[in-house]
Design goal:
Layout: H1 3-18, H2 31-37, E1 50-56, E2 71-73, E3 82-83, E4 87-93, E5 98-99, E6 103-108, E7 114-119, H3 128-131, E8 137-141, E9 144-147, E10 153-157, E11 163-166, H4 186-200, H5 204-214, H6 228-235, H7 239-251, H8 255-268, H9 274-292, H10 297-303, E12 321-325, E13 331-335, E14 344-349, E15 352-354, E16 362-368, E17 373-377, H11 379-392, H12 394-401, E18 415-417, E19 420-422, H13 425-435, E20 436-439, H14 446-449, H15 467-471, E21 474-477, E22 485-486, E23 492-497, E24 500-505, E25 514-517, H16 526-537, H17 544-550, H18 554-573, H19 584-599, H20 616-628, H21 632-645, E26 649-653, E27 656-660, H22 668-683, H23 687-705, H24 711-715
Helix pairs in contact: 4-5, 7-8, 8-9, 11-12, 11-13, 18-19, 19-20, 20-21, 20-22, 21-22, 22-23
The structure holds S-adenosylmethionine.
């Protein structure tokens, strides 16, 4: 898909529309046409995959003015391309709703004026009949009116919180609508509305309980204000209520409170309660994880698979880190105490996550006019999920809106207006762009363990750089990890098992030292990586690799790029396998190319094992080539050189191997290099050295993939 063309076209259409700003709509469709358009209930989409394009239009703030302070306006008074500040539009839906990207319906106002209403950023799984049902009444705060590409007009809602559903009997409903009011079903809608109204009046306790009892999905049960109120209310209730409160607290990840409620259930019953006992134990496990960071990662890894919902039931472990000031980087995350290489730094469940596998039926292309970015995949669904989650949970909204937003203004905080949580969807997306991480559908080790490397087991032509493309598939937000700043040579690295992000130290980290991790895999071309970081994240990396690269002359860079292109061609034409071994000429060519690229690295700037990434793919090829040729000493020589180019300084004295991890990048190539070395030592009868390298490789594997799963599949047994 040509994203640039799509973006350009949309910008032009928006610009053209601006020419009509402030004018009244002409040649509008009449009631009969709109009634016909929305006459029928929408049939479910036929089977197949639908690609939808979601445009994030130019940002404008969500309305925070209460209805009581807004003056009514009629459809006939609306001006094109205009945000009608200080105004409210009372509307009644005429037809049956339909969804293309927005949920749409025909609407009328109290004077009989008609138009089309389009509500964006609602969740695709929310039934449209729930969003804009036929004959429902709404108040739309500060409406925005637009011409559409099909030559018509629409009242466009980008912030769903601007649209307030009004219930029968609400005194704010204009009198002209009264004769045609449709009685609501008090059973479902009425109970929810009573809860919302109580919430609006700040009767939190009542609101919580009405919501909790009416809604089995306890995740939307708000505990954000004074949990004593909850205690007070539950005290009047029986064990069943305590049990529900325990489940609700668990869903809100307040495991201590959940455990307390489950204990109360047991106290209410003389003979004990098996369900409460089981749930109490579960809450106790979560508390243990929170306190100690002891997780059964092997079991977690077994629990996820391509066919399951990989959202895991585990607590966060975050007591080893704290927020702090990182100077020009803004806020950062810092180690509370000294950590050893391989230690768990943070283990966090996703705040919100969309697995690519869940998007099989609808694929969204998202085009953002504010940031000039376009992407395809789960990003749009993540936005809809976030808007839904934040709208239902003000406490979670406060956490989310505290994340870095790239300087987005205005910073409208989540707040309750007319009983609805105001959520600025443009700011939600701005924050998502700076804070979301790509992740695999199942676990990080899959790409590596399923494709064993040539010469170390089965055949493989993966160059070890495939992780990024796999990471693009699923996308999520982890709010604690979001405070971590970037460094290409970071001291921490992340892995995923299902929706859990597991961050480990790649070398020893001092107390109070900032935790840094690479946001993306640095590519072999350092300056190119830096330019793309600047474009995507808005900063220039000043890590040790980037600092060394900055000292490289233009001539050296031009030469390195030309040689790297030659290396790519060489690798494409010289794929290795048992059937295609390298001949002496190709090995000579690779050695020559490698030493030519090495010359482009300034010796002083890249001293002390600073990674020289442009050497690593060719270095890896040479390890494989010598391994196939059973030239064990050459394998060891090449693998140690490759490890050095990945930042690991290896020194061997009296058969004792010492490894300097301080600049090391735990890359799959480094693990392969260590295992090539181990296997070669074994073949040469040097078991002790072999074991040392194997232990080093296994340690790197756990850093990179969270636990040992997949290591033996790739490398076989020692
Ligand atoms: C996910 S946030 C990280 C936390 C952020 N610093 C904060 O204040 O909340 C990403 C943003 O942090 C800043 N940042 C991250 N790494 C940086 C670095 N190495 N140098 C300068 N700014 C950095 C950039 O503004 C980037 O867009």
């Amino acid at each position: 898909m040509d994203y640039a063309a799509l973006l350009q076209k949309q910008k032009q259409l928006t610009l053209d529309a601006q020419g009509r700003k402030g004018k009244k709509a002409t040649n509008k469709h009449g009631r009969a046409f709109l009634e016909m358009l929305f006459a029928n209930k929408t049939k479910p989409s036929p089977e197949g995959c639908w690609v939808r394009t979601c445009f994030i239009s130019y940002a404008y703030p969500a309305s925070t003015t209460p209805l009581a302070q807004l003056r009514p306006i009629l459809i006939s008074d609306l001006r094109l391309e205009t945000h009608h500040h200080g105004k409210v539009l009372f509307l009644r839906t005429i037809g049956h709703p339909t969804r293309i990207l927005a949920v749409q319906n025909a609407v009328e106002d109290q004077s009989g004026g008609v138009d089309r209403l389009a509500v964006y950023n609602t969740h695709p799984t929310t039934p449209i009949e729930q969003i804009l049902p036929k004959h429902a009444l709404f108040a739309l705060r500060e409406p925005f009116y637009k011409a559409t590409v099909d030559g018509g007009y629409t009242i466009r809602v980008d912030h769903p919180s601007n649209l307030i559903r009004l219930q029968a009997g609400d005194e704010r409903v204009p009198a002209a609508f009264s004769p045609r009011l449709v009685e609501l079903d008090k059973e479902a809608e009425g109970l929810k509305a009573d809860g919302n109204a109580a919430y609006g009046r700040k009767e939190y306790c009542a609101a919580r309980f009405e919501a909790a009892l009416a809604d089995a999905n306890a995740a939307i049960f708000p505990l954000e204000l004074g949990t004593e109120a909850l205690d007070e209310a539950t005290a009047k209730l029986n064990g069943k209520a305590y049990y529900r409160a325990g489940r609700a607290a668990y869903a809100l990840r307040d495991f201590a409170r959940a455990a307390e409620y489950f204990r109360k259930v047991e106290r209410c019953s003389a003979s004990g309660d098996a369900d409460a006992e089981r749930e109490g134990k579960r809450a106790a496990c979560r508390l243990e994880e929170q306190k100690t960071g002891h997780y059964d990662f092997a079991a977690m890894s077994k629990a996820v698979s391509a066919t399951r919902n990989n959202r895991l039931d585990h607590a966060d472990f975050s007591i080893r880190v704290k927020d702090g000031d990182s100077g020009s980087r803004g806020r950062g995350l810092f180690a509370v105490k000294a950590l050893k290489k391989g230690d768990l730094v943070l283990c966090e469940k996703a705040f919100e996550l969309v697995f690519a596998s869940e998007n099989a039926k609808e694929v969204y292309t998202m085009v953002n006019l504010n940031t000039n970015r376009a992407s395809m995949g789960a990003h749009a669904t993540l936005l809809f999920d976030l808007v839904q989650k934040l709208s239902h949970n003000p406490e979670q909204a406060r956490v989310y809106f505290d994340l870095h937003d790239g300087g987005y203004t205005p910073k409208i905080p989540p707040q309750l207006v007319d009983g609805v949580t105001v959520i600025d969807t443009f700011r939600v997306e701005a924050i998502s762009e700076y804070n979301r991480f790509g992740c695999p559908n199942v676990r990080s080790s899959d790409g590596a363990s399923m494709k064993p490397r040539a010469g170390l087991g089965k055949n493989d032509d993966d160059d070890g750089e495939g992780e990024d493309s796999q990471l693009e598939n699923s996308v999520g937000v982890w709010v604690v990890a979001s405070h971590i700043n970037h460094a290409c040579d970071g001291n921490a690295v992340r892995a995923f098992i299902g929706d859990m992000m597991i961050i480990r130290a790649v070398h020893d980290i001092g107390a109070e030292e900032e935790i840094l991790m690479p946001y993306c895999n640095p590519k072999n071309d350092g300056p190119a990586t830096r330019t793309s970081m600047k474009k995507t994240w808005g900063f220039e990396c000043d890590c040790r690799i980037c600092e060394a690269d900055a000292g490289t002359t233009k001539a050296q860079l031009v030469r390195r790029r030309a040689l790297s292109k030659e290396a790519v061609r060489f690798l494409e034409n010289n794929k290795l396998s048992m059937q295609h071994l390298a001949n002496a000429a190709s090995i000579r060519k690779a050695e020559k190319l490698l030493s030519d690229i090495e010359v482009t690295y300034d010796k002083t700037a890249f001293a002390n094992n600073r990674p020289r990434l442009a050497l690593t793919t060719l270095g890896h090829w040479l390890c494989q080539a010598y391994n196939f040729a059973s030239s064990q000493r050459k394998v060891i020589e090449c693998a140690i050189r490759l490890l050095r180019d990945l930042g690991y300084g290896i020194s061997v004295a009296n058969k004792k191997v010492t490894i300097d991890y301080s600049c090391g990048r735990p890359d799959i190539k480094a693990i392969d290099a260590a295992m090539y070395t181990a296997h070669s030592h074994y073949s040469l009868g040097e078991r002790k050295q072999g074991l040392y390298y194997e232990e080093f490789a296994e340690g790197l594997w756990v850093m990179l993939y969270a636990e040992k799963q997949g290591f033996r599949e790739r490398y076989g047994s020692s």
